[in-house]
Design goal:
This protein has a single domain, classed as Ribonuclease H-like superfamily/Ribonuclease H (Nucleotidyltransferase, domain 5, 2-Layer Sandwich), CATH 3.30.420. The N and C termini lie far apart (42 Å). The protein is built from six helices and six strands, in the order E-E-H-E-H-H-H-E-H-E-E-H. Helix 1 runs parallel beside helix 4. It has a two-stranded antiparallel sheet with strand order 1-2. A two-stranded parallel sheet has the order 3-4. A two-stranded antiparallel ribbon has the order 5-6. By secondary structure, it is α+β, with helices and mostly antiparallel strands.
């Protein structure tokens, strides 16, 4: 995430990357985003890049991630337990829904691998390589393509702000931050007595 110290309402850019037989990094700009969006973006990119529709041989693809919460959510969704209520209030919910939709339509399997590991395993090396592409791509933000905002998987009623875009995080927390920013602006320009 650039800048790494950005707050809830500050503009920032997150980079998601996927690597394997093909590599791609894309940016997600906005103010109501977090590193989570980069993790989900990388998995979405991996699913799209690994799509073998139209090829004669179909095989089950292993997608590796160091984001354990996403692995657990995918496993829960495949258990037959409806995830609709769970997703309704999650940060990054439209990206999670997009990911789950792609998983349902593919034969890919998402597996957890330990992140930032020095082990000499294929899984550790692939995870380190994806992290390398995501962090190195931050130097090329201007040239990176933007990942589309998955408005097609948003809640039926999603808050939007002209300055902050689509708000898919904790709405009360967002409103508190918005009110604090507004109050600070008013206090900063108040006439002196």
């Amino acid at each position: 995430m650039i800048p790494s110290s950005a707050g809830v309402l500050d503009p920032k850019t997150v980079v998601g990357a996927a690597t394997g037989s093909r590599t791609l990094a894309m940016k997600i700009p906005g103010s109501n985003i977090s590193i989570l969006h980069g993790e989900l973006g990388g998995l979405i990119l991996a699913l799209v890049l690994s799509d073998d529709t139209g090829t004669a041989s179909r095989c089950i693809r292993r997608l590796l991630t160091d984001h354990l919460n996403t692995v657990r959510l995918v496993e829960d969704s495949q258990s037959g337990v409806d995830q609709t209520a769970h997703l309704r209030f999650m940060n990054g919910r439209s990206y999670y829904r997009w990911l789950l939709n792609l998983i349902d339509r593919s034969e890919a399997r998402i597996e957890y691998t330990l992140g930032h590991s020095t082990q000499a395993t294929l899984e550790a090396n692939m995870n380190n390589e994806a992290d390398f592409y995501a962090s190195t791509s931050q130097k090329l933000l201007r040239d990176l393509p933007c990942m589309p905002t998955p408005t097609f998987f948003m809640n039926s009623f999603t808050v939007h702000s002209a300055s902050d875009g689509w708000i898919e995080s904790n709405i009360p927390l967002y409103i508190d931050a918005l009110m604090a920013r507004s109050c600070a602006k008013e206090l900063g320009i108040a006439p002196t007595l």
